[in-house]
Design brief:
single chain, mainly alpha, Glutamyl-tRNA Synthetase, domain 3, three-stranded parallel beta sheet, 19 helices, 12 strands, elongated, ligase
Length: about 475
């Protein structure tokens, strides 16, 4: 059997972080088993589905590298096929027409408890003769669910065996009176026609699985394996909501997280492989399976996410990061300055965990310090005799260096303090202030090497003696 999974979001909003994890688990399971991972847009709710939401979902999936295999299936384009299956179930005796009015259905809900029923609909038209149908009423088509008083058990690949009494399953609607299919029918027909073998989704769909199980059976189709993964909760254990912070994938991108960070974090949010925390995509594909998915909800830990992002920033290609931060620094079209940013990236990423932090850390590489410095701590570095020491170092040492490398500059700093009999701070502090305008920066030799000889000397020369 070739494994086929699917991610099937409803385009009524952004790509939720929980949805992104569901897509990731479907993708990894399919890749691990050498199968296929497909995308389906469940846009049958035409009033709430929007092109803007579809675009946002697809953009988020593309950013995460979770595009599906083959063409995307849009559920709304298959209404005729869904109706065809409903009518086939009607012909085979597995479904029936129901002519109940809204008022009659409301009355049934009112008497449900006193009649001892667990479902609102009492099956009024289930076994009635169609000749009794009222004139001028368009019926809905309902499925005949089990009425034998038994129970249904689903062998869930995450939750284990889950059982529900059949009297809790109602004869739900397959086709509305206007001929449009319901969500429950569309999902089952599409899963069958797409050849889906494993339905991996949030455990908020677990109850639906029992209805869908019987619909597969009624249609004479193989039932796919189900795997219902727990939802993601906020740090306080409550269901993840706006008050906990970002919910949509695009918000995490705007906050400065890398896609590889988010995938690694979501992977570990409910799935484990020993004590491994940092897991590459190749490792994830090799290791991922559903038996290691926990049954309890996972909690978001934003500090852990930020720390993980710091790791991936340090692992990322410097040129890629330079391209990412260049627009925020106003140098997107300047290849020379982007090259400088890329050269300085090894030192910059040691001081940042997110893209905005990286932007702040890198600013001095594209903007010369303006004196007097606004930062009080940095201003102290270029006060007193500091500027004179920095200028002396530039004139007597830096100006004569031909081989302008980080190693040479490191030796130049070391030799200068030794020859002058001073502490490193006497030269390091004013030079740092002159070059970066800050009191904290990457290693000075590295900064000078990245800025280059001309820019380094120009910045020190611009340092006012009375700063």
């Amino acid at each position: 059997m070739t494994v086929v999974t699917r991610f099937a979001p409803s385009p009524t909003g952004f790509l939720h972080i929980g949805g992104a994890r569901t897509a990731l688990f479907n993708y990894l399971y399919a890749r691990h088993h050498g199968g296929t991972y497909k995308l389906r847009i469940e846009d049958t709710d035409r009033k709430r589905s929007t092109q803007e939401a579809i675009d946002a979902i697809m953009d988020g999936l593309s950013w995460l590298g979770l595009n599906g295999d083959g063409d995307i299936l849009f559920q709304s384009s298959r209404a005729d096929r869904h109706a065809e299956v409903a009518k086939a179930l009607l012909d085979s005796g597995h479904a029936y027409r129901c002519y109940c009015s809204p008022e009659e259905l409301e009355a049934m809900r009112g008497t449900m408890k006193e009649e001892g029923r667990k479902t609102p609909y009492n099956g009024y038209w289930r076994d009635r003769d169609p000749s009794e149908a009222p004139a001028g009423v368009d019926p809905v088509i309902r499925i005949k669910m089990p009425r034998d008083g038994g129970a249904t058990t689903i062998k869930d690949l995450v939750q284990g065996d889950v059982t529900i009494e059949n009297d809790q399953l109602d004869d739900f609607i397959l086709l509305r009176a206007d001929g449009t299919p319901t969500y429950m029918l569309s999902v089952v027909v599409d899963d069958h026609d797409m050849g889906v073998t494993h339905v991996i989704r949030g455990d908020d769909h677990l109850v639906n699985a029992f209805r869908q199980f019987h619909l597969f059976k009624a249609a004479g189709w193989d039932v796919p394996a189900f795997a219902h993964i727990p939802l993601i909760h906020g740090p306080d254990g409550a269901k993840l909501s706006k008050r906990h912070g970002a919910l949509g994938v695009e918000q995490y991108r705007e906050m400065g997280y890398l896609p590889e960070t988010l995938k690694n974090y979501l992977l570990r949010l409910g799935w484990s492989h020993g004590d491994e925390e940092i897991i590459s995509e190749n490792q994830a594909i090799e290791w991922f399976d559903l038996d290691a998915v926990g049954r309890s909800p996972s909690r978001m830990d934003f500090q852990r996410l930020e720390n993980l992002n710091g790791h991936y920033l340090r692992e990322a290609d410097p040129g890629r990061l330079a391209d990412m931060i260049a627009p925020a620094l106003g140098v997107d079209g300047d290849e020379g300055l982007k090259a400088r940013l890329a050269a300085g990236m090894p030192g910059l990423t040691q001081r940042a965990n997110t893209i905005p932090q990286l932007v702040d850390a890198a600013r001095f590489y594209v903007e010369r310090p303006r004196f007097p410095l606004e930062n009080p701590k940095a201003a102290k570095l270029v006060a007193g005799e500091g500027p004179a020491v920095a200028k002396d170092f530039a004139e007597t040492v830096l100006a004569g260096i031909e081989n302008w490398t980080e190693a040479t500059l490191h030796d130049a700093l070391k030799n200068y303090v030794e020859s002058k009999g001073i502490g490193f701070g006497k030269i390091g502090q004013p030079v740092r202030g002159a070059l970066t305008g800050t009191n904290a920066s990457p290693d000075l030799a590295q900064v000078m090497a990245v800025l280059g000889r001309e820019e380094t000397l120009a910045r020190i020369d611009a340092l006012p003696l009375n700063a």
